[in-house]
Amino acid sequence: MKKKQSTYLIFIILTALFLGCSETMILPDGDSDNTGINRDANKYVEITPNWSFDQLNLNTPMDIYASKDGRLYIADSSENRIRVIRPSGEVESGMYDTLDNLPLKPTAVCLDARFNVYYVDNGNKIYVWPQFSASIGIKGIVTGRYYDNNGTQVLMPPLEGLASGLQVIPYIDIIDSTATEVIDSLLAPHVSYDPQSTANREGIINPMSGVALSGNPVYAGINKSFVALASANENDFSIYTADAINNQILKIRLIPTILVKLNNGQIVWHYEGVLESFVATPGTGAGTVSSPISMASDRSGNIFYTQTGEFFSVHKLTSTSYTSGFLVGVDDIMRLGEYGYARDITVSTDGNIFVLDTLDHDVKMYSSTGEFLKSVVVREEWIRITDSSYVADSLVVQDTLVLQQYPDLLKQPLAITFYNDVIYTIDNGNRRILRFTKVDDVIVENPDRED
Is 260 helix (H, G, I), strand (E, B) or coil? Predict the structure, then answer.
């Protein structure tokens, strides 16, 4: 006589087992309307083959950033370079060779919406490479522009015209193509933010907004260690950096300095970084800073950072008020003892937060509201356990699937980024980059048991 399985559909999260956590679920029977029992919107599976450091000519990568066109920028510290890689794994060359043989050891990198590449070396300056201008080439420096002042054409220097708020008259700019030294310096990697510059010590008026930025001679004179970077919202001409010595998160305003005409006819500004404010200051509570080590931002301009100081390893600052975006005692992401070592952080396009845990050898995934969802970048195995019991004098055979997670893929991982549903994790101990991609629907088939 055939006996059917019960039609229950159960998904239970169990406690951690010896090498990882597990999940159990009861398989449905053949009469169930369900087409599967595991529809996990947060399922990630490994993409093979792995990318080896040797294949990518990497040695000691410290940070990785995915630009909006999918290219990966990797700060390879000991090799004094930033390696650029396509999503296919092909190493970029040509103009990107500019980022080889840098006169420093880059430890963190990010890009803004205008494709400017920013990087630091744990020192007291932020550097930039204007990738967009370099890719097209600069025809000359714009020394004068004509503006419409109530129907009258007025010739002014670009900065003066920008501050005036008058409408520019296009196509009649005055271009100096002889300033080759200035052009060469603009196209090469150079300092973007120097706390000891005149603008940062004495202050400056932002010609874009008319807002005065007061200088900070005290901060200019003390030791600093910029260890992490994050870009601001696309409409906010700013970047953020973390100072590990002084436990500060800085907002650096990008002030236009030189206007150039590119070889394709486009007119673009080049910028200098000027300190606008300290958006987070030293402390041990939510939204404060204690030994920061990594940063990221989302599409809304919210800032996320990890740190090694007391109490809370992961923080979020809202883009509007720079107050804490998570609540202690409420949000999982702020739980004490949640992490072994929260080494890096990234945010997906749909707002999920991924924290790379070097000691726990995994990536912890949280919702945009800070709720723990699951561990990813781990090895998973499904184990089927069969048992039987009598229900109303009938024998019922039940199959239970147990999902076992083993955090044994990563060894001393240092950096993570996210692009187009793919997690890229730099696995330094195994000298490789692991890629995990999102799978919208994973189905475990009904085994159709008969007894």
Answer: strand
Residue 364 vs residues 191, 222, 332: alpha-carbon distances, Å: 35, 36, 11
What does the domain layout of the chain look like in residue ranges? Answer: 127-227+236-281, 291-378
DSSP assignment letter at 57? T
Q: Which residues, listed in sequence order, are joined to residue 249 by a DSSP beta bridge?
A: 242, 280
Angle at alpha carbon of residue 97, lines to 96 and 99, rounded to 5°: 80
CA angle, corner 425, sides to 55 and 432, nearest 5? Answer: 25
Residue 60 to residue 431: CA distance in whole angstroms:
9
The answer to whether 72 touches 85, Cβ cutoff 8 Å, is yes
According to the 3-state scheme, what is the secondary structure of 382-415? EEEEEEEEEECCEEEEEEEEEEEEECCCCCCEEE
Pairing verdict, β 190-193 and 204-205:
unpaired
Phi-psi sector, 274: left (phi>0), alpha (psi -120 to 50), beta: beta
Q: Which long-range contacts (CB under 8 A, 24 or more apart) does 47-51 make?
A: 47/422, 47/435, 47/436, 47/437, 50/427, 50/432, 50/433, 50/434, 50/435, 51/89, 51/432, 51/433, 51/435
Q: Are 407 and 378 in contact (CB under 8 A)?
A: yes
Residue 318 exposed, middle or buried by CB count within 10 Å (0-12, 13-18, 19+): middle
Where helices occur in 180-244 by DSSP H, the ranges are: 180-187, 198-202, 217-220
Percentage of the chain modeled with pLDDT above 70: 88
What is the number of helices (H) and of strands (E) in the chain?
A: 6, 32
Coil, strand or helix: which one is 114?
coil
pLDDT in tens, 19-47: 345 555 444 444 444 433 445 778 899 99
For the whole model, what pTM was predicted?
Answer: 0.88
CATH 2.40.10.500 holds for 291-378 = yes
Do residues 175 and 166 touch, judged by C-beta distance below 8 A? no
CA distances 309 to 74, 154, 397, Å, are: 26, 56, 52
Residue of 137, 219, 214 whose CA lies nearest to 180: 137
Q: How far apart are CA 163 and CA 184, in angstroms?
A: 27
| Tens-place pLDDT, residues 354-404 | 999 999 999 999 999 999 999 999 998 878 888 888 888 788 887 777 778
